[in-house]
Amino acid sequence: MGIIIDSKAYKDGFSIPISEEDKMVRYIEDIKTKNDEVNPTKWWENFDEMVDSFVFQYVSSKFTPGAISKVEKIKSRTGIDGSIINAKNLLLFAEDCIQGKVNTEYFSCNKEINV
């Protein structure tokens, strides 16, 4: 599984405004089509060729209450699952990774991850 991660630093919480939603949709479309005429950077080549599925995730210090509905909207636009995670839970999640306790369902829950 590949993960498209977008990290944001917003003092009052990240709300996933429409401009950022559209960017994530473009990232997902890029990786689905892999069309170098649309995006000549070919950033998707950084994923191992064995990766056959993708999810997306936003990382921020905190999120506004409406952020989850934006994750659900991105899923409805692309068919790809996603999640949000704050910085504290990201560190706890990293510890779970180190200990081999990673559950990939975290990434496709379409909600905020709380470890």
Describe the structure.
Helices cover 35% and strands 17% of the residues. The protein has three helices and four strands, in the order βαβαβαβ. Strands 1-2-3-4 form a four-stranded parallel β-sheet. α1 packs parallel to α2. The longest helix has 16 residues.
Shape: globular
Beta content = 15-25%
Give me the Rg, rounded. Answer: 14 Å
Q: Could you spell the SSE succession in H and E letters?
A: EHEHEHE
Major beta-sheet overview: 4 strands, parallel
The low-confidence runs, each spanning 5 or more residues with pLDDT under 50, are none
Considering the chains and any ligands shown, give keywords for the structure.
alpha/beta; 115 residues; globular; 35% helix; 17% strand; four-stranded parallel β-sheet
What does this entry show, briefly?
This protein has three helices and four strands, in the order βαβαβαβ. The chain is of the alpha/beta class and 115 residues long.
Secondary-structure blueprint of this entry?
Blueprint lengths: L1 E6 L10 H16 L20 E7 L6 H12 L3 E5 H12 L13 E2 L2
Parallel strand pairs: 1-2, 2-3, 3-4
